[in-house]
Amino acid sequence: MESRLGPVSTPGALPYYVAFSQLLGLTVVAMTGAWLGLYRGGIAWEGTLQFNVHPLCMVIGMIFLQGDALLVYRVFRKEAKRTTKVLHGLLHVFAFIIALVGLVAVFDYHKKKSYADLYSLHSWFGILVFVLYFVQWFVGFSFFLFPGASFSLRSRYRPQHIFFGATIFLLSVGTALLGLKEALLFKLGSQYSTFQPEGVLANVLGLLLACFGVTVLYILAQADWKRPPQAEEQALSMDFKTLTEGDSPSSQ
Amino acid sequence: MESRLGPVSTPGALPYYVAFSQLLGLTVVAMTGAWLGLYRGGIAWEGTLQFNVHPLCMVIGMIFLQGDALLVYRVFRKEAKRTTKVLHGLLHVFAFIIALVGLVAVFDYHKKKSYADLYSLHSWFGILVFVLYFVQWFVGFSFFLFPGASFSLRSRYRPQHIFFGATIFLLSVGTALLGLKEALLFKLGSQYSTFQPEGVLANVLGLLLACFGVTVLYILAQADWKRPPQAEEQALSMDFKTLTEGDSPSSQ
Questions:
Q1: How far is B186 from B51, CA to CA, in rounded Å?
Q2: Tens of pLDDT along B104-124?
Q3: Hey, which of A27, A64, B31, B216 has its CA 20 to 30 A from B197?
Q4: Exposed, middle or buried: residue B72 (CB in 10 Å: 0-12, 13-18, 19+)?
Q5: Mutate which of A127, A169, A250 to disrupt the B interface (most B C-beta within 10 Å)?
Q6: Residue-range domain boundaries for chain A
Q7: CA distance B222 to chain A (A)
Q8: Is 1.20.120.1770 the CATH classification of the domain at B17-228?
Q9: Residue A177, min C-alpha distance to chain B (Å)
């Protein structure tokens, strides 16, 4: 059993689950590219193809990179806590910048085409999730990196940061599914019901997006797979308190 | 702090979160009814209105009742374990039957109208979630109620049952959002972008559906709010092992 291993060991099954999540994540990114290339004329910043920048950037940023940022603490188990923390924050910065490009693309495209903004359920979820993502990053950075909060504040905020991090990721997956559905219905309309190749490909992409979300959540949810506190950290680092269970009953 | 309370006490904030979840859940059911009544001509088993049975039944069964079934172990903290277990299983049975009526309604409606079945992303998710829900119920019933599995099998399956229970619930919320989006785009089409009252109402309903999902997940995720093992149960019941953390490192 994993739970009997020492604190610096990696649980036996974890690498396989992480590898599977990466396979799913890369497949989702590749399939999004294939969908846009095969059925939507590819990608460009000018003209009608500018719209296609939106789904690709959102899937790379808000799904794949955001998901991987959440897995950093499960994958980097032996590295210094601060290094892992900086990597977690940096991956979220990359995800945020790529998603911002995707957002600018769709607003710019709507403006050129004189389309209305922010009327659909997808867009309401999208804006909400993007704002929450920024707030979560900013508060996380302030508490855990710079300037940093006190032991007690950190250990009280930490479970909230983890819960809302996972929630924002799941809402991002949900928002992507709504966007995919919208893109299909706008273009295919009643043709969607005739099992067009584009419809089937996009449905499979939707299922794989959900599978990636569930796999990341599964890895995060395994108590045995959490990054264990390292002896060196416990003695040297101010971060020790943030690694423990804090004031949960199981730590009594 | 809740964690310092005795094993049979109720954490201070829990009732407020549960009350809030019920307010959200009932609002979602009422708004679904209002949407169907105001903009879709109401509900009937015959004719075009048969379709409307589908969203209402799915929201009552797969969202509200399924969510409440997950909260049973947080709300009934002092009752006998077996009573709580039976209530959890029964709520899922009610949810399943109501959802089955909703499924029959949409297939029957499609048949009468000669519409294609199971072509959309919503329908693929829907069928998958419904099958997973049945399998989860059946395996849960077999392991925990009748005939029941051994201590060690139960304690190994329990975390999986909890994870997949929450996952199926979240997938149900996602499926409802996809269905809502589909219903809006099929009827409103390009009118959706003119902020029609129906579109705005349905968007708000979509956000509230997600809020209900997040609130239930938040209550489930609080380690301090888990149902504590009761002294009497520990001595008398065969279920004791299923209440503890099993073989997680925090119980060492």
A1: 13
A2: 999 999 999 999 999 999 999
A3: B216
A4: buried
A5: A250
A6: 41-242
A7: 9
A8: yes
A9: 7
Q: What is the ipTM of this complex?
A: 0.90
Q: Dihedral, CA atoms, B95, B96, B101, B102, nearest 10 degrees?
A: 70
For chain A, what percentages of helix, strand and coil (3-state, to nearest 5) are there?
A: 80, 0, 20
Q: Give CA–CA dist A175/A121, Å, rounded.
A: 9
A249 cis-preceded (ω within 30 degrees of 0): no
Cβ-based contacts of A118 with chain B (< 8 Å): none
Q: Which fold has domain A41-242?
A: Four Helix Bundle (Hemerythrin (Met), subunit A) (1.20.120)
Tokens 């190749």 correspond to A197
DSSP character at residue A45: S
Spell out the alpha helix ranges (H) of chain B. 14-39, 53-58, 66-75, 81-113, 121-144, 151-188, 197-221, 231-236, 240-243
Residue of B nearest to A206 (CA): B121
Q: What is the pLDDT of residues A184-229, one digit of tens each?
A: 999 999 999 999 999 999 999 999 999 999 999 999 999 999 998 8
Q: Residues 6 or more apart from B72 whose CB is under 8 A from it?
A: B84, B87, B88, B91
**Is A249's CB within 8 Å of B223's CB?**
yes
Q: Does the distance separating the beta carbons of A207 and B128 come in below 8 Å?
A: yes
